[in-house]
Amino acid sequence: TIRDLVEKNCQLTQAYTELKAAQEQLLEKERLEAELDVARSIQRSILPHARPVLSGFDFGMLIEPVSSVGGDLFDFIPLKGNRLGIAIGDVSGHGVPSALFMGLTYSLVRAEASRGSAPVKVLSNVNRLLIDMSDSGMFVTMLYGILDAASRQFTYARAGHPPPLLMDERGDVTCPRMDIAQPLGLFDDMALDEQTVVIPPQGRLF
């Protein structure tokens, strides 16, 4: 009987220890989920909420991260001369590391683009700064371009990101020609693809 009681006491002690550990894991999970909710709110507050206003153009945007937080980004930067800078990018990986790298990239792109420099120079400067500031091994694909309302020209530089698609008034879709383009954050002397497209009246650019 005593042996049975001792064995049952050991089983109860083990069960209590496992229950306590499970409770601690649950509390830790809840804490992490709460922190991720805050991180998601902060990340979404960084990205534009309102569509830009540019005479003759209508804009739309939608972003849906795979996880709570992620590395997708976009931005609209008003420039002088009735022009608008447009950026879209995707950081390697998912989750918190990508979100942190996205925040860094977003800030650098906005700062460099606000100078009004050509897209290829903007991305080259961002690449240099990313390499100087981070040794995480992460990278980001990006397309940054300047839309001129008067000429309807969109001049862009592409760093490993998919090219834009151009739709004319009939609904026919064309893809601009592509040159070699490497992501930001990997190589000091990277290759960028620089192109110019003209958006026809009643046309669309994706």
How do you describe this structure in short?
The protein is of the alpha+beta class. The chain is 38% helix and 22% strand.
What proportion strand? Answer: 15-25%
Name the overall outline: elongated
Relative helix content? 25-40%
Rounded to the nearest angstrom, the distance between the terminal CA atoms is: 78 Å
pLDDT < 50 runs, ≥5 residues? none
Structural class: alpha+beta
What string gives the helices and strands in order? HEEHHEEEEEE
**Rg:** 24 Å
Number of strands: 8
Number of helices: 3
The residue-averaged pLDDT reads 87
Largest sheet: 5 strands, antiparallel
> Major sheet: order of its strands?
1-2-3-4-7
Can you walk through the features of this model?
This protein has 206 residues and is of the alpha+beta class. Helix content is 38%, strand content 22%. The chain has helices at 2-46, 95-113, 119-133; strands spanning 72-79, 83-91, 140-148, 153-159, 166-167, 173-174, 193-198, 204-205. A hairpin with a 3-residue loop joins strand 1 (72-79) and strand 2 (83-91). Helix 2 (95-113) packs across helix 3. The longest helix is centred in the first third of the chain and has 45 residues, at 2-46. The chain is elongated. The relative contact order is 0.11.
